Amino acid sequence: MKTPVKATLVTLAVVVVMVLVAIIYALVNQNPTPPPGEGSSTGTSVVGESSHVLDDGGPDAVTVVEFLDFECEACGAFYPIVEDIRERYAGQITYVVRYFPLPGHFNSKNAAIAAEAAAQQDRFEDMYHRLFETQAEWGEAQESRAELFRGFAEQLGLDMTAYDAAVADPATTERVELDFNEGRALGVGSTPTFFVGGEKLELQTLNDLEDAIAAALSGGR
Question: Which CATH number fits domain 4-217: 3.40.50.10800, 3.30.460.10, 3.30.200.20, 3.40.30.10?
Answer without folding.
Answer: 3.40.30.10
